[in-house]
């Protein structure tokens, strides 16, 4: 049984990159995604590129979700950007606190993603489907697991429609997180974020930065392959496809793929699952 899919992209910086990303999107559209999202740089640093990519996705006939960061923002700037997205035909947002760019002092009128969710609901009612982020293995800046869970519950109660997790490789961590959230009365869909494995060095770097755990057995196997790229990709495909099956069988509502602007790895996982084009 197949469940719904979605894909995340990041904005490119050159015309050549934008052209390559269009080709990647065309390949992934063949899998009939529920929506595609585009990330937003620290302090809104990729605002123009994010909105340009979102506009293209809408024009290509696919529902688009813009990541929307509030750190350093004011109510006036957020209000204007919401109007801009609505005029484009965007009806889905991924509401985030976001990161401050290097050397940027704390400012703006929003301190937490829950503040942003509350403001969007106050300003636009139900015009947007609001996604929020959550962390089955705990946000790296959280004071404690309980504080992190409570922060997620606050975002849900502020008006979020659904949540997308940070990627993980332990299905048990996801199911435990969902159970804990349900005990707090959070009943919105919690969608697993899925990261295909194509490079051990890239995966280690990203995971160290975002706090995602790489189980010891996976780390050791990847280290054992050295520079054997094909073996890394083959092993990664086995791991991620098995994870997706476990998540589907355990009741995950859908899967959200972090594509890294590449089509081959997500498509390989979906083909393995029999969910391809």
Plain-language structure description:
The chain has helices spanning 15-29, 47-59, 75-88, 113-124, 145-158, 171-183, 200-210, 216-225, 229-249, 264-273; strands at 5-9, 35-38, 64-69, 92-96, 129-134, 162-167, 190-194, 255-258. It is α/β, with parallel strands linked by helices and 277 residues long. The chain is globular and about 50 Å long. It has a single domain (5-273), classed as TIM Barrel (Alpha-Beta Barrel). The mean pLDDT is 93. It contains 10 helices and 8 strands. Helix 4 (113-124) packs parallel to helix 5 and helix 9 crosses helix 10 (264-273). The protein has an 8-stranded parallel barrel with strand order 1-2-3-4-5-6-7-8, surrounded by 4 helices.
